[in-house]
Design goal:
- With 123 residues, this protein is mainly α.
- 84% of the residues lie in helices and 0% in strands.
- α1 runs antiparallel to α3 (32-56) and α2 packs across α3.
- The chain is elongated, with a radius of gyration of 17 Å.
- The two termini are 29 Å apart.
Length: 123
């Protein structure tokens, strides 16, 4: 599942626009490749965690709370350009490609979850 989220993010046009901008603003210190791969890895990991929640009941709330707490803490310590890049990176993952892929994954996961509940009731 991580591969699906990773791949969908790589097809997102806005991500490449952001990567070019970051590369220029950082004067090459943060390369286009670093931006694209880090964002794609984040989306892929999020997709995999979402699937784990559905399949084995993995609790996401503690992980989300810890992640957002860390992100807010790092925001207070980072420079303005890095802060903008970090938060904009989250925004580019909601483009036309990623949203469609993730929506389809969620729909299918809901179907699987419904079938599992129905099978459990029959037992």
């Amino acid at each position: 599942m991580q591969i699906l989220g990773f791949g969908a993010t790589l097809a997102e046009p806005a991500l490449f626009t952001l990567a070019v901008t970051v590369d220029r603003l950082s004067r090459g210190k943060i390369s286009q490749r670093q931006v694209v791969l880090s964002v794609a890895l984040g989306v892929g990991t999020g997709t995999a965690l979402g699937l784990l929640k559905i399949v084995i009941g993995f609790p996401l709330l503690p992980l989300l709370l810890a992640g957002y707490t860390l992100a807010l803490l790092l925001t207070t310590m980072a420079g303005e350009i890095l802060i903008c890049v970090a938060w904009d990176s989250a925004g580019v993952t909601t483009g036309p490609v990623t949203v469609r892929v993730e929506s389809e994954v969620e729909r299918r996961e809901s179907e699987v979850e419904g079938r599992q509940e129905e099978m459990a009731r029959r037992r």
